[in-house]
């Protein structure tokens, strides 16, 4: 089983939203073979808590425009690692220190990467 077309569409929208708010290291994985609860993960990071919040807000707004509301949002108070669960996809926006420490991409490295659109740019400093 692979991620649904709708999940891929949501991944692309979330990645674009993160890119528009200058997110770093934007990547996505098809986790549908490993997890029954979601099809894909989107990972993005930012150098400070304020930018993490800005990215999270933009992702939520963009997916809401597509008719998707988050089922759950966790970690917002600390602003270091916010998880937004949309059902089909889960978006992780992390402060760059948390991203380096937890290294989710190493944990999910055996899952296929989802190719992101050419207009998605990881804004590295």
TrEMBL record:
GO terms for cellular component: cytoplasm. InterPro entries: Iojap/RsfS/C7orf30, NT_sf. It holds the Pfam family RsfS. Transmembrane segments: none annotated. It is found in: Cytoplasm. The keyword Cytoplasm applies. One of its GO terms (molecular function) is ribosomal large subunit binding. The keyword Repressor applies. GO terms for biological process: cytosolic ribosome assembly; negative regulation of ribosome biogenesis; negative regulation of translation. Keywords: Cytoplasm, Repressor, Translation regulation. SUPFAM superfamilies: Nucleotidyltransferase. Interacts with ribosomal protein uL14 (rplN). Functions as a ribosomal silencing factor. Interacts with ribosomal protein uL14 (rplN), blocking formation of intersubunit bridge B8. Prevents association of the 30S and 50S ribosomal subunits and the formation of functional ribosomes, thus repressing translation. PANTHER family: IOJAP SUPERFAMILY ORTHOLOG, MITOCHONDRIAL ASSEMBLY OF RIBOSOMAL LARGE SUBUNIT PROTEIN 1. Belongs to the Iojap/RsfS family. This is Ribosomal silencing factor RsfS. It comes from Nocardioides daedukensis.
